[in-house]
Recover the amino acids of this structure.
């Protein structure tokens, strides 16, 4: 027994092998997808510039330009709201059907030629 008492115990160490550097998340995939999408749009633009005529390019540009001006401040003209903005505090909604009301105001009456001949005469 004395011979076995002097022997060091056997210790087994299991070392965990890490392959690939661990988990770093998937943010790189989002960045890569954004990059690929931007490159696709760029190459489609280059292809369109090469494959279309000047008239077709004008049509494409008109398609992407806004047709309704979005502006919170009125230009001051005597247009649809009499120079006032839709967003101003003084503009109140008007109920009714306009010129077809029984007693329309002078401002709310329809003006202009209807294109129809007047009856009786």
């Amino acid at each position: 027994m004395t011979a076995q008492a002097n022997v060091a115990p056997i210790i087994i160490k299991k070392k965990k092998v890490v392959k690939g550097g661990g988990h770093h998340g998937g943010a790189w995939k989002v960045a890569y997808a954004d990059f690929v999408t931007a490159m696709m749009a760029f190459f489609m633009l280059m292809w369109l510039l090469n494959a279309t005529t000047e008239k077709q390019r004008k049509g494409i540009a008109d398609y992407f330009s806004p047709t309704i001006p979005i502006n919170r401040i009125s230009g001051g003209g005597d247009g649809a709201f009499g120079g006032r903005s839709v967003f101003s505090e003084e503009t109140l909604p008007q109920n009714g059907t306009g010129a077809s009301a029984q007693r329309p105001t002078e401002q709310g009456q329809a003006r202009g030629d209807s294109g129809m001949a007047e009856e009786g005469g």
Notes: Residues 40 and 46 are 10 Å apart (CA to CA).
